[in-house]
Structure formats: C-alpha cells, structure tokens
Amino acid sequence: MKASEIAALVGGILEGTADPELLDLAPIDRAGPEHLTFLADARYASYLEQAQAGAILISESLTARGGTQLPRIVVQDVHRALGVLLARFHPEPEAPPGIHPTAVLGTGVDLGPDVRIGPYAVIGAGTVIGARAQVGANVVVGENCRLGEAVVVHAQATLYRGVRIGARSIIHSGARIGSDGFGYTPTETGLQKIPQAGGCILGEDVEIGANTTIDRGSVGATEIGNGVKIDNLVHIGHNVRVGDHTVIVAQVGISGSTRIGRRVQMGGQAGINGHIEICDGAVIAGQAGVFSSITEPGVYSGWPARPHKETLRTQALTARLPGLLQRLRAVERKLSGESSE
Prior knowledge:
Helix content: 10-25%
Mean pLDDT: 94
Number of strands: 38
CATH superfamily of the largest domain: Hexapeptide repeat proteins
C-alpha cells in the first residue's frame, strides 16, 4: 500500500514529500525501506535518527520527539491504528467450511451453516454449534455444549459438558473450560470429592489464552462476562464471576466464589483469595496478593495488596531498615557505655 493509502485507512495525516509503497510493518530498529514502522512510546524516540524504514506511524503527542526525514503518518492512537493495519497486511486465513472425515459427532449434534470441524475433533451428543464457528484439530467438545456464531476453538482445547460460549469468542490451544472445581470435604477415611454439578458460561467476544483453565461451578455457574480477555496460564476457580471487559494477564490465580467487577485489570502472577469481591475499575499490579475485598477503584499492589502508594512507602521504609538498625545499635552501644561509667 502507498503511505497515503495507509494514512486514509487509519484516519491519519501523511507528512513529508514522499509517498512510498510499503509491503509490511516492522519494529523501528529492524525496518527497511519497504516497511512501515511505528513509534508509540517516548522510550524509543532515540531510534528515530537511525531508522531505515520507508515511513513511520507516529502518535501526535510524539511528533516533537527526535529527528527524522522519513515520511510520517500522524495519528492520535498508534496502537489502534496498528490493529487496523495488521489485520489488513496479515489477514487471518479463512478455512473452508466443512467437517473433516476423521471428526466424531455424537447423536443430536446441531451444526449451523458454514461451520468448520477439524481433523479428529470430537463433538459430544446434543451440542449446538453456531454459524461460521471453527473447531480445530483434536478439540474435544463435551455433550450439551452451546457455541455461539463465529466462535473459534483452536487445536487441542477441551470444553467439558454443558459449557456455553458466546458469539465471536476465541479459545486458544490447550485451554480447559468447565473442568471440575477443587472441592473436597474431610472425612474419617480421607478427603471426599464434592460433585461439581454447576456450569461454565463465557460471554460474547471473550478470548481465553493457551493452557488456561476455568473450572465449572459446584452449584450454579462460573461466569465470564462479555469482552473479557484472559491471557495464557491463568486459573479461575469454581463459581468465580468476572465482569465485562476485564483483563487478566498470565499466571493469575483466582480462588473459588470470588466476584470480579467490570473493567478490572490484573497483572501477571497476581493471586486472588476466594469468597471476596473486587470492585469495578480496580487495577491489581503484578504479583499482588489480594486477601480481602477491594471496594474502591484504584491501583493495588504488594503482598498483601494495599493501595499502591502505601506499598511504595512501605518498600522505601524497608530499604532503610539496615541503616536504621546500625544507628539503633550505635545508640545502644553508646547508652551501654554511659551506664557502665
């Protein structure tokens, strides 16, 4: 595409006299004359002087940073523009609809139009799959599941019985949706398993990362709201409810029966206790340990998690402890010497 065509596509302004033809996108330190590169973060502005790209996509707020003679496509939001351009330069391959001859379909399976079922997929009895949905190779979909239109389930994912997934949601490889919750009761002879009779419901436009597990409810359902984005290697316990448009990053663990609000952000490796509530709009920093409910929006960090400014003050004081201890011992020695006299 010509740089001018790209600018029109993303609603940007092309600055400079040249209008090069560009074949792909590339990072600013690796781009050549055939590439469109981008600058969305001031930390990378120093690369501008050495950039060899054909043109650069740049945030309006960064146009004064650094110097370059490259043609510039100026936009308000580089990341949003990149989403449009990546979809244009690298469209998802469209697999033809159809059922692979090695797929196994149970009795009463209901397939909508233009569905694709891949090699060795297993679809349980009574399952309904909506129009244009895709089920990849070696996927197992249990009995009586419901998959909305245009759902994509990538290779080797597993949906247990009765799972419901809303339209346009994406399940990545190795994800396990609707597995038994971790429920046992102690007896004289050992731990007795509590039947996990509930469901697992995912809303529309949800994305579940690779090797993430979401347990079914024990009684009632585990519920993931519309637009929720969950990274790889996340564990969500039974009967958890996650509000719409929440983001959960890799290796987060959420214990059972916790309620997560709307538009919450959880950083990597955060741990969330069970039977608590996290309010709408809260931000949980990476590796935070949340032991009690959070009732006010804000940024929370540390172990146990507390408002981020409090955590920073505590860390600053902790760093001063060795020096304070030395001063305390010096005072003790001085007082000890004075008392001995």
